[in-house]
Amino acid sequence: MSETAEVCLLNIGPKQRAIRMRFGIISFVIALAVAAGLVVTQVPFWWRLTLFLPFMLATTGFFQARRKT
């Protein structure tokens, strides 16, 4: 019985990782500020669901920088 390990090759360098991390941080801060503004102004819940995309982009930037992919 042989087990094969999954190999993940690094395809970005330190500069690209920094760019993706910066993108993740900026996206997260913007999404958080907009979310706070929508909550303070008591915008209906359905409008707040539109923040899914900015938060998703932020997490994608974080994960790509962290996994070096």
Features:
3 helices; 69 residues; mainly alpha; single chain
Helix content: 55-70%
Rg over alpha carbons: 17 Å
Q: How much β-strand is present in the residues?
A: under 5%
Our measurement of the CA-to-CA distance between the termini, rounded to an integer number of angstroms, reads 30 Å
Largest sheet: none
Mean pLDDT: 87
How many helix segments? 3
Number of strands: 0
Write down the overall geometry.
Answer: elongated
Order of secondary-structure elements: HHH
- Which parts are unreliable, with pLDDT below 50 for 5 consecutive residues or more? none
Structural class by SSE content? mainly alpha
Descriptive report:
- It is a single chain.
- The protein is mostly helical and 69 residues long.
- It has a domain at 23-67.
- The protein has three helices and no strands.
- The longest helix has 27 residues, at 14-40.
Which helices and strands, and how do they pair?
Blueprint (H helix, E strand, L loop, with lengths): L13 H27 L4 H4 L3 H16 L2
Helix pairs in contact: 1-3
Summarize the structure.
The protein has 69 residues and is mainly alpha-helical. It contains 3 helices and no strands.
